[in-house]
Amino acid sequence: MLCGLDIPILFVDSPVPLSGNTLKADFLSMDNESNIFTFAREMSRRGKKRIGFVGEFLHCRSFFERYMVYRNSMYLFGLPIEEQFCITQNRQDNTLLSTEEYQAYLTDCIRNLEELPDVFICANDFVAIDLLHAFRTLEISVPNDVYLCGFDDSPESRIITPPLTTIHIHSQVMGYSAVYLLLSRISEPSLNYRSVRTETTLIFRESTEDGGNF
After folding, report:
1. Is residue 109 in some structural domain?
2. Residue 159: inside a domain, yes or no?
3. Looking at CB atoms within 10 Å, which of 26, 46, 63, 162 has the fewest?
């Protein structure tokens, strides 16, 4: 409906089914792929070859892209994708869980595993923090028992224990890019519609037995 109003439209992220080729709108997103690939390669180099993914992959296009690059990375590095380590849903009877409910769901999922992977990659930092809460309930230690990686570099990721390995989104660059896309669309309405991705940076911290930038 919005795209039919003949006004400048910019999506920052989007639902999974949407495509920049089918809507009269510009798209802005962070690079969801490069640093998950780099992280998986580094984990493989360290001998951490059993890697899982946590997060509702259909929640938004960014989550979907992060999940798909996880799977692509595992394939390209010759690592097994063990579906038991991919927690990509929530409770079937409730698609909108509270934080406490989602933490309880993750706790149940982890409790039912016969064994842990070496590493969990999470769709974002808040999923990683929820998973860390489940680990604490089950007396599982990060990073001693399992490594943990988030995405976003939220303020919370730096102050939790242990500090979270994550992928930093350059919010200021995204802000400038958003303004540029909107202003250029206003001044030149006939421009082809664009999809822009901004750089991200992988940051290793104590949840993978590291500290500082990689």
Report:
1. yes
2. yes
3. 46
